[in-house]
Amino acid sequence: MQQIAKQTGQLVAIIGPGVLWIIVFLVLPSLYLISIAFLSNDPYGLPQLPLSLHAFRELAGFGLLGWSPGNLYTLGRSLWQATFATILVILISYPIAYYIATRPVHLRPLMLVLIVVPSWTNQVIRAVGWMNLFSPGTPLANLSAMLGFTEPQMGLFPSQFAVVVGMVYNFLPFMVLPLYAAFERLDHAQVEAARDLFATPMRAFVHAVLPQTLPGLLAGTVLVAVPAFGMFVVPELLGGGRSSMIGNLVARQFADGANWPLGAAGALLMILATLLGLYILRRAARRLSSEREMLL
Amino acid sequence: MRLFWYATMLFLYAPLAVVVLFSFNAANSPARFAGFSLRWYDRLMTNDALLLAFKNSLILGVSSSLIAVVFGAMLGYGMYRFRHWHLHWLVWLIYLPIVMPDVVYGISEMTFFVAMHRNFGIFEPGLSTMILAHVSFQIPFVALLVHSRLLVLDPLLFEACADLYASPLKRLRYFLIPVLWPALLASFLLAFTLSIDDFVISFFTAGPSSTTLPIYIWSAVRKGITPEVNAVAALIIAAVGIAGLAALVYHHVKFRFSHSVKT
């Protein structure tokens, strides 16, 4: 009995400071933010009693002037832009991960580093790079104007296109790495068996490659789609008002167009989306692999 | 396939290359390159706001990483030592900062600090609140790194310590720190990188006088991209490039070494 008490004391002394830090500076603030979502806002946009669900109605578009679809458009756009970017990332990552996995062993780490290095720079700097490339008068902007995609003298940003490109750029490594890990353990005998049975490349992929790389694909999809849904920097810099996403909507409620409860309601939605993503990942990971658990 | 690889490389490196290229642009527009010039770099050196932002970034990165390494390493050691206790809540708590969307993270910190400041007069937004926020997302990474290092150690080493009647302090001094120091150094570097690289959480917890480099670039970009912004960005890209190169060389040497041992 005394032994357990002593050990508990040691546990508290060792993990106490770190645990306390995370609780005080992350858990409590998040709970506070969530609680704001259930308050009403005063004339300055700050939270006040009484409790209400007004913020959620507002998030769904019910404002002072009746219902308007603006917020729902933003929500839908977040979903659609994140989905589109994720699909593009998957389409690029599959051949890349496969290509890396088929190179000589000593080249592979080098190639992986080459994929990852750009993401070591700051998000803002990466967006600046695309702003440079997409500015009016640059070769890319001229080309798209010549092909009739954009008005002459206009740049390629701000636009939904630029936002999607920026997100693909940001999240590519998050898909390539787990897919590469899956390809590295790929059982090529299955692929050869499929080829021996005269499977078309498409069928060989669907029946021999896809099932084996599914865990990697799934991990990558969650790693890309969840942060893409809550993206803030890219739509803010590369997109305009017509491509802003839920992260921007939330941030705006705490800045100029202050309405803290509305922003908190949006933040709660983002937290729920993240938890849903993690839940899907865990469920799928358990079902797909009998290997060790994902967490630790 | 090879072509697709090169196209992807172009996609990944063109934006960075353009930033570097146009930081040397004599003209003021990203539309045309009007000859080589260093004048934007000259201008950087005399830009006080920028130098202050650089200094703030360094202070923030170093101090937050130091705190995070100490508390994170303790947490990682605790996770290892009490691993038979099945502390599931602890695992959730550690993963929370990693999975939290950064906008929500930053805003919840901001509302919290604002409320504390209004009601109790503590936590005025500035470098100190940024350090508090950064440490909270650095601790989990340090803890996981130290924990994974401890997992590959021979458990008998711990018993040897106990058999020799090592006091907790001696165990720390003569066993844990010597064994863990590469992991501690690696976690310091990781924490520092995370801090320097962070924009969103810094953005929401910063005060008026605690602008860091990413925040400086952000507000400069909002006024329009200039070669001067490109020059700052190019310097950061160069730093990252050197780090990447170092990683490559390190890997190469290690590979050579492991091969020469085998043969």
UniProtKB/TrEMBL annotation, chain A:
The record's section on SUPFAM superfamilies has: MetI-like (SSF161098)
Report the subcellular localization: Cell membrane
- Give the matching InterPro entries: MetI-like, MetI-like_sf
Superkingdom, according to UniProt? Bacteria
Keyword check for Transcription regulation, yes or no: no
Query: Record keywords: Ribosomal protein included?
Result: no
* Pfam families reported in the protein's UniProt record: BPD_transp_1
Which residues are in the ABC transmembrane type-1 domain?
A: 75-281
Concerning its family, UniProt says: Belongs to the binding-protein-dependent transport system permease family. CysTW subfamily.
Task: Quote the protein name from its UniProt record.
Answer: ABC transporter permease subunit
From TrEMBL, chain B:
Which is a Gene Ontology cellular component entry for this protein? plasma membrane
Name the Gene3D superfamilies on file: MetI-like
Q: Which Pfam families match?
A: BPD_transp_1 (PF00528)
Membrane topology summary: Multi-pass membrane protein
Residue ranges of every copy of the ABC transmembrane type-1 domain listed in the record: 54-250
Q: Which CDD domains match?
A: TM_PBP2
| Sorted UniProt keywords | Cell membrane, Membrane, Transmembrane, Transmembrane helix, Transport
Q: Which one GO biological process term can you cite for this protein?
A: transmembrane transport
Per the UniProt record, which residue ranges are transmembrane? 57-77, 89-107, 127-146, 174-193, 199-219, 231-253
Q: Where in the cell is it found?
A: Cell membrane
Regarding protein family, the annotation reads: Belongs to the binding-protein-dependent transport system permease family. CysTW subfamily.
Q: What name appears for this protein in its UniProt entry?
A: ABC transporter permease subunit
* Native organism: Spiribacter salilacus
